[in-house]
Amino acid sequence: MPFIQIYLGNHLSQQHKKDISLAVHQSLVDIFNVPLDDYFQVIHSMEPGDILYPESYFDVPHTDNLIYIRITCKAGRTPDMKKALYEKIASRIAAATPVSIDDVVIILVENELADWSFGRGIAQMIQ
């Protein structure tokens, strides 16, 4: 049930966007045991200058290929699972696109089952 928002520069191709999307989704399937058909994402393609970042943070350099990935999901994963997810997402994106592993910033936001509706105005997860 994760909801993914990906913010990236509009210079990346449609294929790169697809590769990034699939890297995130497959990593969630592999690490968080998300069902394969639980695929809810929005890609925000941004103009140059609309993605702001420092040249380096925590000794990690950043470039114009920087992407932000915000994952909203149900609480309950361990810190080790979260670390494994971050590593898997970043390495898959770096392997499939021109985006460096350094340019993958991930923000995970947790919530509860009652915070979700998948249509019809129904809280399906607490029925």
Short summary of the structure?
With 127 residues, this protein is an alpha/beta fold.
Shape: globular
Tell me the number of helical segments per DSSP (H or I, 4 or more residues long): 2
Give the averaged pLDDT, no decimals.
96
Question: What is the radius of gyration computed over CA atoms, rounded to a whole number of angstroms?
Answer: 15 Å
* Strand count: 6
Q: Can you write the helix and strand succession as a string?
A: EHEEEEHE
Query: Could you describe the largest sheet, including whether it forms a barrel?
Result: 4 strands, mixed
Strand order of the largest sheet: 2-1-5-6
Q: Supply the number of structural domains.
A: 1
Structural class: alpha/beta
CATH superfamily: Macrophage Migration Inhibitory Factor
User: How widely separated are the two ends?
Assistant: 15 Å
| CATH fold title | Macrophage Migration Inhibitory Factor
The share of residues in extended strands comes to: 25-35%
Proportion of helical residues: 25-40%
- What CATH architecture label applies? 2-Layer Sandwich
* Uncertain segments: none
Q: According to CATH, what is the class?
A: Alpha Beta
